[in-house]
Amino acid sequence: MVTAIETRIAEGLFARLAELVLDPVLPIAYPNADFTPPGDNRWLKVTEIRAPALAFALAAGGTRDHVGVLQVDVLWPQGTGMAAPRQVADALIAHFKPGTVIYRDGAKIKITQAWIGQKLDDPPRMSLPVSLRYRAFG
Asked: Which end of the chain, N or C, is more open, meaning fewer C-beta atoms within 10 Å of its C-beta?
């Protein structure tokens, strides 16, 4: 059975994220997967934000341009400063730096942009969003 390009994109991005080495190791909450937040309120939360695919070739069933953002929120306890969560966010940016190419079962996924967003407070934790824009053809 052939796996749809959207699934291969997500799997490729998730696999790349799983390769990130952090010290200490942070658990990752993937979309629609069982997850219990750790008691120390330190973890990563993944959200997929996909845009509609656009036809790149005129022929029926031709290549389509797939773009989207993989958002990885760095969750951290409130009141503990910004240095540690920023270091995690910086590590994510370095791991997915623009120009990074990820291959997954014939899909070529290119990171085109990466940035750190505004801190969001969600007591007893805060969230620092890291957005990773990608583009893939399939």
From this structure: N
CATH label of the domain that carries residue 55: 3.30.2000.20
Residue 53: pLDDT over 90: no
Q: Which of 8-22, 44-58, 87-101, 108-122 has the lowest mean pLDDT?
A: 44-58
Could you give the dihedral angle defined by the CA atoms of residues 62, 65, 136 and 134, in that order, rounded to the nearest 10 degrees? Answer: -170
| CA geometry: angle 66, 15, 97, nearest 5 deg | 65
Per-chain mean pLDDT for the chain: 92
| Cα(113)–Cα(135) distance, integer angstroms | 10
At a CB cut-off of 8 Å and minimum separation 6, what does 31 contact? 46, 47, 48
Q: Is 108 exposed, middle or buried (0-12, 13-18, 19+ CB in 10 A)?
A: middle
As for how many domains the chain has, the answer is 1
Torsion of CA 53, 57, 60, 65, to 10 degrees: -10
97 — pLDDT class (breaks 50, 70, 90): very high
Triad 14, 94, 89: Cα angle to 5°: 75
